[in-house]
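Regression test case RT-17, inverse folding.

Input:
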């Protein structure tokens, strides 16, 4: 909350500077979402339930001035009936922007996406993930930042200063998809600094004909926490631990008519592995996506995807995807209801089971959307990351009302 108040005051001061200038455009929108989270298998731990129900609201205020300035404010709030850790407030964006012909700058809280692949975005390190809202790691928390973009003939240059680190959300004792034991609140440690130690990032990106490439560097905290073991009243407890890392990486994508060739790669140093030893490693995602246009009723498209995830730490990696093949099919009907569905499967080449994923969306009318997504976890070996999820296969059904 202290951080939010600081940013609110900063943006308030900026708005005062232009109080005498009438906005050229103002827009407001919001959505209300009701979700049911079903777990077909019995919970492993005491206090957990078969089902969770939640309600969330997200709104957005956008103001634009005629002198190349705009302000975006997007708060989010969720309430869950079972897990108090899922009940949370976040400012997804509160960003003040100025721009010219060949530059743009942003200050406040923002969301940034880097990446080209589907199964995982290794290079996407600016924002933290909101795990309790989306276990598929597609939803992000807002990140306090200052950003400058320079637009040149030889590419886009992005520079970031991140003054405050966001912790990853995690399920509570009653929550499903949690570690054993669950992560304690207010017990996080930061190696090499504090939550207020600034992080730095820079990125270059460019399109050359059929090629899209990027390179980046990052110095700050890794986004996935390792585990600190704490003994409290004779019981073992887990606490999140974040380490300062150095990362270099990039993306590559080539368009060949209806086929996309994709690559993400990183070299990272300073992060702990599953044995809690710090070191360096190389990771990559190599993929191909081929689209069969107008193959469903002469209008809809079918996309075929295959990707390989590699992590040089192999069994020592704390990541689920370290030697895995991802195969998926994407259906886009291009109809009035904007119907889309992704069916995917992940196979561990080391024999550590499979993951099957579903992500479906369809508009029921002009202001109501139906969403269905879920995951099935199978055959995880004892002691592996997947084994923790052995009875936590899930399906979420949501209705989202837009205003």
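Golden output:
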């Amino acid at each position: 909350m202290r951080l939010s108040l600081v940013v609110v005051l900063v943006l308030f001061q900026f708005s005062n500077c232009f109080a005498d200038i009438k906005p050229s455009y103002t827009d407001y929108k919001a959505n209300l979402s009701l979700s049911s989270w079903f777990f077909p298998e019995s919970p492993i731990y005491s206090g957990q339930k078969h089902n969770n129900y939640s309600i969330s609201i997200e709104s957005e205020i956008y103001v634009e001035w005629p002198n190349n300035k705009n302000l975006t404010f997007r708060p989010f709030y969720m309430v869950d009936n079972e897990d108090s850790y899922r009940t949370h407030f976040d400012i997804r964006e509160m960003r003040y922007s100025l721009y010219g012909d060949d530059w743009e700058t942003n200050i406040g809280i923002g969301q940034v996406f880097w990446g080209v692949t589907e199964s995982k975005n290794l290079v996407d390190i600016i924002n933290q993930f909101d795990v309790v809202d989306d276990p598929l790691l597609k939803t992000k928390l807002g990140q306090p930042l200052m950003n400058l973009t320079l637009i040149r003939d030889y590419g886009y240059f992005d520079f970031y200063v991140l003054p405050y680190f966001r912790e990853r959300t995690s399920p509570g004792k009653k929550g499903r998809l949690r570690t054993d034991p669950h992560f304690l609140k207010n017990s996080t440690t930061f190696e090499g600094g504090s939550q207020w130690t600034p992080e730095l990032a820079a990125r270059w990106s460019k399109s050359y004909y059929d090629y899209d490439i990027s390179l980046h560097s990052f110095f700050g905290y890794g986004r996935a926490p390792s585990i600190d073991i704490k003994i409290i009243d004779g019981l073992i407890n887990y606490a999140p631990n974040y380490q300062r890392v150095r990362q270099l990486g990039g993306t590559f994508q080539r368009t060949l008519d209806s086929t996309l060739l994709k690559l993400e790669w990183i070299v990272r140093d300073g992060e702990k592995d599953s044995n809690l030893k710090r070191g360096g490693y190389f990771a990559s995602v190599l993929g191909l996506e081929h689209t069969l246009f107008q193959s469903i009723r002469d209008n809809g498209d079918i996309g075929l995807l295959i990707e390989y995830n590699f992590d040089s730490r192999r069994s020592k990696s704390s990541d689920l995807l370290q030697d895995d093949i991802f195969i998926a099919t994407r259906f886009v009907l291009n109809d009035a209801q904007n119907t889309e569905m992704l069916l995917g499967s992940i196979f561990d080449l080391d024999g550590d089971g499979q993951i099957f994923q579903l992500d479906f969306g369809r508009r029921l009318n002009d202001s109501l959307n139906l969403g269905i997504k879920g995951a099935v976890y199978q055959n995880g070996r004892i002691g592996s990351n997947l084994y923790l999820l052995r009875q936590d296969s899930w399906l979420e059904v949501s209705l989202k009302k837009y205003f």
